[in-house]
Amino acid sequence: MPDAQPRNHGIGTPEDVGARHLLLEAHCFQDLVVDLPTQKPALFRQLLLPLVVDALGRPANATEWAAMFRAGRFSPEQQDTLNAYFDRHRSLFELFDASAPFAQVPDLRTAKGETKGAALLVATAATGNNVPLFSSRTEGDPLELTPAQAARWLLHTHCWDTAAIKTGAVGDPQVKAGKTTGNPVGVLGQLGVVMPMGRTVYETLMLNIPYGQPLLSDDLPQWRRRTQAGKAEDTFSPGTPAWLTRAPRGLLDVWTWQSRRVRLLPEETPDGTRVARVIVAAGDRLDISPDHEPHTAWIIDSAASSAKRRGKKKAVAPARPRRHQPGKAAWRGLEALLAVERSGDQRDATATRSGFRTSDLLGQLSVVTDRMPERYPLQVELTGMAYGNQSAVIEDVFFDAIPLPLTSLDPDGFVYVSLLEAVDQAEKLAVAVNNLSADLRRAAGTEPIPWDKGQRPGDTLLHALDPLVRRLLTGLRTVGDDLDLCERGAAAWEEKAGRETWKVAEQVFSTVAPGVFSGRRLTSKDGAERTYRLSTAERSFRYRLDAILARRAAARRAA
User: Fold this and answer.
1) If residue 503 lies in a helix (H) or strand (E), which one and from where to where?
2) Rounded CA separation 203/205 (Å)
3) Which DSSP string corresponds to 382-403?
């Protein structure tokens, strides 16, 4: 059974435990401690969540889900069921089993008997074309993984592996010249992962389990599906070298999707069993669909959605996963995270209006907010990877966590409006500072800084506003239904945002050349003439600032 390293609740010290101990005592642990942020969603999706759902089933409705969440821990009856599940399927979790190794293919081999170093599994290790910046290892350095480390990186590979050419395996009918081509990145690498997080591992498990639809009879986790290998009724077992491009059977199938065919090759060393060599080949290719994927927000094709509402199309509006942008704070994407669907005719309208649809998990939380503890400290973790060179290398890892008021999931609520207004103001303030810089540079006879080259003052401002927005998010978790308190929070945000904006603007002013006082007259492409000088640039900036921060401007006029 793969080990996890959770942080003990209330103590803050990491502790190595097995999956059985972690689940049975999930209420005693705060979180998982991982080697890389992308390991956490891999461990939850590939192991912990499907274990719970396959053993206990999905909550039938919001009422049942809320009762389980409020319980704060698995009941004695549920613990007995989990224990019985582990006992019944214990052999399926053996990492080095000869006939059915966990999340692997037994006897996987290449035609020439080649193997590769264990660094192939580790996203932070140099191997082949994937050479992380400032890596402390080279491909020539041997890497030996403990069984627990190998298990975690194995699950990580199924979720996040790079694309391009993979080693051809004996028994794979689609191998050509000893390799397979056209492999996509792992399932999570195609998403912008959104995970709601609770105060304990138990609460996090509940927050990540969708309620409602019952499991289909053939929707199985990979460890139970691989036992069907060779049976006529199961044509897509992950326990063989062959792979398919197919739609998932359901939630458990998606969570435990086997994007690669892998074999760990253990060896005995003076330090115990270690994994130094592996085989990684092509695996199943997933047709990603909003019907079964709960851990990402979606970009909606508004034109298709509009046509559907007019009755011109019966098909569901096209949607694609919204991936995260490295270097862009999570709160700057709140419009997508808060794009909660409504029931009835308004369902498509809400998504179309914003162009986004939030994840199913945040969407279901919007239904049960009144059944959760008041002012619940919900956190949302966003994880993703940026790939380069035809997705064959990892360029960057995205990770951010933000506090999210439950009341912000109500599109008709004032907290929702206040948050989106604050995010919009931050973006507009950055544009205003960039415009100020551009006007002053034109007055000095130089071109504005291109948006894709160099550091612009707007980027500096967004960095300065980051802690203010996070403080606003935290503060709005406590306002409840107090509109006046929410309004005071918005006013305080505007005052602080205005001060930070002026700090950056003053840095811009301090760099101006003497010639900007008299200015320069420039002719635009349409023939219009405009004079750029310091006084007009400052006047325009002040006007924009007052228009963006209306509460602040009104308060100053009234003072």
Assistant:
1) helix 483-509
2) 5
3) EEEEEEETTTTEEEEEEEEEEE
Count Cβ atoms below 10 Å from residue 72 Cβ, excluding itself: 15
Cα–Cα distance for residue pair 473/481, rounded to 1 Å: 15
Phi, psi for residue 205 in degrees, rounded to 5: -60, -50
Report residue 369 CA to chain centroid gap: 22
pLDDT of 233: 42
Burial per residue of 92-125, b for 16 or more beta-carbon CB atoms within 10 angstroms, e otherwise: bbebeeeebbbbbbeebbbeeeebbbbbbbbbbb
In angstroms, the first-to-last Cα distance of the chain is: 66
Residue 344: its pLDDT value, please? 42
What is the SS3 assignment for 157? helix
Q: What's residue 225's pLDDT? A: 86
Best CA proximity match to 38, nearest among 232, 189, 228 = 189
Encoded amino acid at 132, one letter: P
Contact, 497 vs 425, CB < 8 A?
yes
Which residues of the chain fall short of a pLDDT of 70? 1-12, 126-141, 227-236, 302-317, 342-354, 514-529, 531
Is 411:445 a contact under the CB 8 Å cutoff? Answer: no
Q: How far apart are CA 549 and CA 421, in angstroms?
A: 10
- Token digits for 239? 């326990």
Whole-angstrom distance, CA of residue 554 vs CA of residue 429? 17
Tell me the pTM: 0.89
Residue 54: predicted pLDDT? 96
State how far Cα 141 lies from the chain centre.
32
Res 346: pLDDT: 43
Which three-class secondary structure state does DSSP give residue 383?
A: strand
DSSP annotation string for 315-355:
SPPPEEE-PPPTTS-GGGGHHHHT----STTHHHHHHHHHT
Given a contact cutoff of 8 angstroms between Cβ atoms, the answer to whether 6 and 28 are in contact is no
pLDDT at 352: 47
CA dist., res. 19 & res. 92, Å (int)? 13
Q: 3-state DSSP helix/strand/coil percent for the chain, to nearest 5? A: 45, 15, 40
